[in-house]
Each structure stands twice: as structure tokens, then as C-alpha cells.
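Exercise 7b. C-alpha cells:
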């Protein structure tokens, strides 16, 4: 039995509320159970120096956790003068994931920055950030298309992410914090709407796993991300 009472292959309740901020070109608040992430997308008519003049667009991301997103207060990273290694790793992951679904030629020489701010954390914050980040990106690109700033849709395939793991000897979908903290194996799966893998992060957290178990987790992740892609489409149509 999972602590939440969910079936092994059941996602936490998912909701995606769009248009939650006034100024951002695209925004949403994604809730996956008790993990809540505010995602905003900002369009700028500039690109990083390393692609300037190439005609290619760029999608990047920033990630952060609010001080009381967890059960005890964390210091703001700004107070320490630098981002932690975990933060840097996660925001690079989000950027890579979102770019996998983008035709950068069609986007044109502009940058879209997706900011993911964790309001409340209960496991799976990076996965929720990717899933919600895509919605914010979709809404921002819709504005570009409506304004005639792009000739064709630069978003070629939705991108969603979900965690899976081995908890109490069983493969489970969408780990919350009680499961994540006790899981023998933990993995994050980023998959496109057409079922193509973008990135898989898997590690043994106390017990090793077999190839057959990895396949079971991948099967769960495919099921979960398809449900998340459906939620993304419902939120943006």
C-alpha cells in the first residue's frame, strides 16, 4: 500500500491553471498533488552570444524553491550570493527538456526564458516544472503566432516529465515525498507527446535494480506522461 493510498500506476491529482500572472507572455500554476509550481515564460528579442547571427532561437529555464516550499525554511540562494549545485542542475535539465520539443529555426532569433518557482514541494518538483514549463511556453508561442511574428508553429512536440521508482519492492508512478525519501530506486523520465525519450535519470538509492525493473518503470512513465500531455493540451486549447 502506498502512503497516499494510490494504485501503483496512478498519478497524483493534476491541475494546470493558466494565465495566473499579468505580465508574462505565458504562465500557469501546475499542481501535482501537494507539489505546486508557478511557471512563467518571457519572450525577448535577443539570443545568447554563442548563437547570435545564426537565425536560431533559444529556450532556457531558471528554477528556484521559495523559502517555505518545504517543511522547514530554506535560506534564499540570493542571500548566499550563488545558486546551489542542485538548482543549476535542475534548471539546465528543464531547458534541455523544453528545447527537445522546439524547432529553433521556426522560432527565429529570439529567446524564451521559462521561470519555474516552486511554491510548495512534495516530491517531483523538476518533473512538475518541465510539465508546467511546457504549458507556459505553449501559451507564449501562441501569442507570437497570433501576432504573426513566426511563420509556422515552432513547437513540434509536447514535452512532459514524471518520476517513477521502486517503493517497498514495487514499481510505482509519480513519487511523492514520503515515497521518494524511502525509495530503493528513483528515476525521472522526460518523454515527448509522440513517445520519444528526451532524458532518463535513474539511480539506485539503496538497492540495485534489474533491466526488467527498469522496463517496468519506463512503461509506467510512458503511461503517466501521456496523461500529463493530455492535461497540457486541455489547459492550452
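Sequence design result:
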Amino acid at each position: 500500500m502506498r502512503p497516499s493510498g494510490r494504485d501503483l500506476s496512478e498519478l497524483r491529482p493534476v491541475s494546470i491553471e493558466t494565465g495566473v500572472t499579468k505580465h508574462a507572455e505565458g504562465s500557469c500554476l501546475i499542481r501535482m498533488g501537494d507539489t505546486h509550481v508557478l511557471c512563467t515564460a518571457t519572450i525577448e528579442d535577443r539570443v545568447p552570444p554563442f548563437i547570435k547571427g545564426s537565425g536560431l532561437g533559444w529556450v532556457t529555464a531558471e528554477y528556484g524553491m521559495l523559502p517555505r516550499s518545504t517543511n522547514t525554511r530554506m535560506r534564499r540562494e540570493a542571500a548566499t550570493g550563488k545558486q546551489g549545485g542542485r538548482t543549476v542542475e535542475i534548471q539546465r535539465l528543464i531547458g534541455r527538456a523544453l528545447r527537445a520539443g522546439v524547432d529553433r529555426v521556426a522560432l527565429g532569433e529570439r529567446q524564451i526564458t521559462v521561470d519555474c518557482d516552486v511554491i510548495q514541494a512534495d516530491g517531483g518538483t523538476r518533473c512538475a516544472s518541465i510539465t508546467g514549463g511546457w504549458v507556459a511556453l505553449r501559451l507564449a508561442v501562441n501569442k507570437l503566432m497570433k501576432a504573426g511574428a513566426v511563420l509556422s508553429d515552432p513547437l513540434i512536440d509536447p514535452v512532459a516529465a514524471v518520476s517513477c521508482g521502486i517503493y517497498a519492492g514495487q514499481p510505482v508512478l509519480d513519487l511523492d515525498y514520503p515515497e521518494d525519501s524511502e525509495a530503493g530506486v528513483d528515476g525521472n523520465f522526460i518523454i515527448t507527446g509522440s513517445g520519444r525519450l528526451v532524458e532518463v535519470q535513474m539511480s539506485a538509492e539503496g538497492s540495485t535494480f534489474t533491466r526488467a525493473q527498469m522496463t517496468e518503470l519506463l512503461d509506467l512513465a510512458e503511461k503517466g506522461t501521456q496523461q500529463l500531455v493530455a492535461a497540457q493540451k486541455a489547459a492550452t486549447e
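Instructor comment: The longest helix spans residues 211-236. The mean pLDDT is 96.
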